[in-house]
Amino acid sequence: MSTIWNVVRTNIGWTIGAGRTTDFWRDPWIDEVGPLADYIPVTALATIGPSPVASLVDDTGHWKWYLFEYILPRDILLRIAAVKAPSANAPADLVGWRGGRNRDFSLKLAYLMRAGYDYSILDLVWKIIQKFPGIPHVKSFLWILCKRKLMMNVERSNRHFTVCSRCAVCGFVSEDIEHIFKFCPPARQVWSELIVPEKLHDFLSLGISEWIRANLGGACSFVRNVENWNLVFGYTLWNLWLHRNDFTFSNAPGNFGNICDRTKAMVASLDRSTRLLRPIRPAHGGAAIGQGQWSLPQHHWLKVNTGGARNGETGHASCGGVGRDCEAGFRQVVLEMDSLEAVRVLKDTATGYLSINWYVKELCSRSWTVHINHIKRSGNNVADKLAKNANLDCLEPTFFATPPPWVTSLVIEDVHN
Ligand SMILES: [Zn+2]
């Protein structure tokens, strides 16, 4: 065990409960961040003794920002702001294995991580590919590409399926995934048409999984034309693959046509058929909640809508929420959100490693009735707008007693629906 302790240690994850046994500076209690001590000068760390996370929180459950705000980078402070501060009544802090969904250890995950797979990214990519609006066999192709299981000439040559590991398109000495999808002349040409020139290097520098995750997930900062970018990106990869196969396996290669034009035609055709299949909205509102429109809460019920947003360029995430019909009091509450994953986490309070489960369970057990429902994004516009416009200069939540001017029209629209 001692020989691999460093590998084990880097994959240990903390779940903060009461915050009494985790060291704020020296333990890596925020996933993907590592020990906060790494972000401050060594001389400053030398003056800081053991500091339980709970000692950095005041009696009202808020972080004591003044104790560390001046010394940590802004990005790290935003990560801390996203963690629920420990509570004296919460269970003890827990330590587990970061690779597992529930912080549980499994030999398979340990092997995958040891072999270099970033399981968390693959899991995330799978969810993004699952939502890809293209046809199923392009989805399958993207997943196989993501797992680097496409049989390229280097691998075919290793298995003696061919005697030549060269690229059939340009003659490059070893044809692998990076070459065909990023650096072969047709790929170079197509990306230079689609990507902003000064961002091309960064765009091509991402690893395959991260590349697919970022572009299918809506990161458009690289792109000249953001319309349907996830479809354009996915179908460009698909056409680069078909184009390569045309050269590798066809007796008369070279009649494939322009990859960009072919991709545009496919995306336009898909977009047309999606529009035709989309349900027609009634002209005068009145749609039921299941059809994706906000509806007034019942008499004596308070409705709370929440939403989250992520800035594709900076990676910063934010959230927002709105309570309506507060005069009804807080004894009967409907909580609505457009993330099915969030609804699942909030309802699954019996198990789970997330400390938020404990807080949700504690909140729900108070003397009120809470219903947690999913609503389509089109019915959650006010919360989504509040999330997108969250003020990240402020580390504590901002409260508005009345709607800020930039959501007023959406609030009125909801009432008239
Ligand atoms: Zn090539």
TrEMBL record:
Domain RNase H type-1: start-end pairs: 327-390
Coiled-coil region(s): none
Superkingdom as given in the UniProt entry: Eukaryota
Database matches in CDD domains: RNase_H_like (cd06222)
Gene3D superfamilies named in the record: Ribonuclease H-like superfamily/Ribonuclease H
UniProt domain Reverse transcriptase zinc-binding: residue ranges: 124-191
PANTHER family: OS05G0353850 PROTEIN, POLYNUCLEOTIDYL TRANSFERASE, RIBONUCLEASE H-LIKE SUPERFAMILY PROTEIN
Protein name: Reverse transcriptase zinc-binding domain-containing protein
Organism: Hibiscus sabdariffa (roselle)
